[in-house]
Amino acid sequence: MKEVDKKRFSALLSWANLHGASLHPALEIYKDDLTGFSIRFKSDLSQDAANLKPGDEILICPLKASLSYLNAITGGPLVSTPSEQTDTSSSFPSGFNDLPPHVIGRFFLMKEFLAGKSSFWYPYITTLPQPDVLSTWSLPPFWPEDDAEFLECTNTGISAQAIRDQLKKEFKEARKALKDAGCEDWRDYTRTLHDWAFSIFASRSFRPSLVIPKALRDAALPKGVAIDDFSILLPVFDIINHSPRAQVRWLVDDESSVAHTCRFQSFDTYQPGDQIFNSYGKKTNSELLLSYGFILPETDDIHNDYLHVRKRTGAGGPADSVPGAGSAGPPQDFLVSLRPINHPSS
């Protein structure tokens, strides 16, 4: 890892630790040739260093360091109890808060990026792929036309186009809301910055219902907003890469009234030098490419290539011309697999 990267990630860990984070002493951040910035089991452990065992909690992330829609409506970091909240003013004009929570969260990330070193999250944001280096964060919806042609007539290509259309609409509405509210810096919220913020949330975020303790959800969530109407960024947590076979658990204390952390527990066995993995859930290569920008190549032990097919039904649909097709009903879904579903690698 380059010296400049070491400094950035060292600053990230120092900042996170200051607010309650903890990384297992046997682990370190490094840059992998294939997966980029990752976390691994140290290969040069001293004799008195802590070992890494299955079932260990390898990372504790304080929700104070998290970044999401909730920060946008409170104007600052999350706290464990309402009494600790000293500033509850929204980061945006009141009319802007009528937009969908996921859009507000996206613009809040943009706002904090534009704030530079004055942002509470500056040590985190500097370790993210940067907006001006498109190749480090560009997901299929933002691919150049020549590259996007390879996705034509695929599920991923269709979804990418739908995302592009939706993002264009959301961006125009949000920027207009800022302009109409008299925000002098509304022009700073550019389309490229918006696409970047979408990609960061799409590829690095977590579902709030899985990582925010109940007490904190109850205290922070506005009336009428569901807990998974938006997603949440967890610094350091998001460095751990995906493996479909990783055995992990995300732990939150829903019984505590002052819980303010999410803990990462791994049940896998690792050797010194091994990369540590998380599991993003059961996702096909199409889903992984669309949301995270990578696929898992097939091996003898595992493959991840599936195709979702939906059979249209109803008036004028193909099924109407098939004898014995019966009355129209809900669409039928099929899963086409590269290998038989009952194959051990499926």
Architecture overview:
With 346 residues, this protein is an alpha+beta fold. It folds into 2 domains: 3-292, set domain protein methyltransferase, domain 1, CATH 3.90.1410; 297-346, no CATH class. The protein is built from 10 helices and 12 strands. The chain has helices at residues 3-18, 69-74, 101-115, 122-125, 145-148, 155-180, 191-204, 208-211, 214-220, 285-292, and strands at residues 22-23, 27-32, 36-41, 57-62, 67-68, 232-233, 241-242, 248-251, 261-266, 277-278, 306-311, 332-337. It has a 4-stranded antiparallel β-sheet with strand order 1-4-9-8, covered by helices on one side. Strands 2-3 form a two-stranded antiparallel ribbon. It has a two-stranded antiparallel ribbon with strand order 5-6. The longest helix has 26 residues, at 155-180. This is SET domain-containing protein. GO terms for molecular function: protein-lysine N-methyltransferase activity. It comes from Cryphonectria parasitica (strain ATCC 38755 / EP155). Residues 314-346 are annotated as: Disordered.
How many helical stretches? 10
Distance between the termini: 35 Å
The domain count comes to: 2
Strand order of the largest sheet: 1-4-9-8
For the report, how would you describe the main beta sheet? 4 strands, antiparallel
Q: Shape from CA axes?
A: globular
Rg result = 22 Å
InterPro entries: SET_dom_sf, SETD3_SETD6_MTase
Protein name: SET domain-containing protein
Organism: Cryphonectria parasitica (strain ATCC 38755 / EP155)
GO molecular function: protein-lysine N-methyltransferase activity
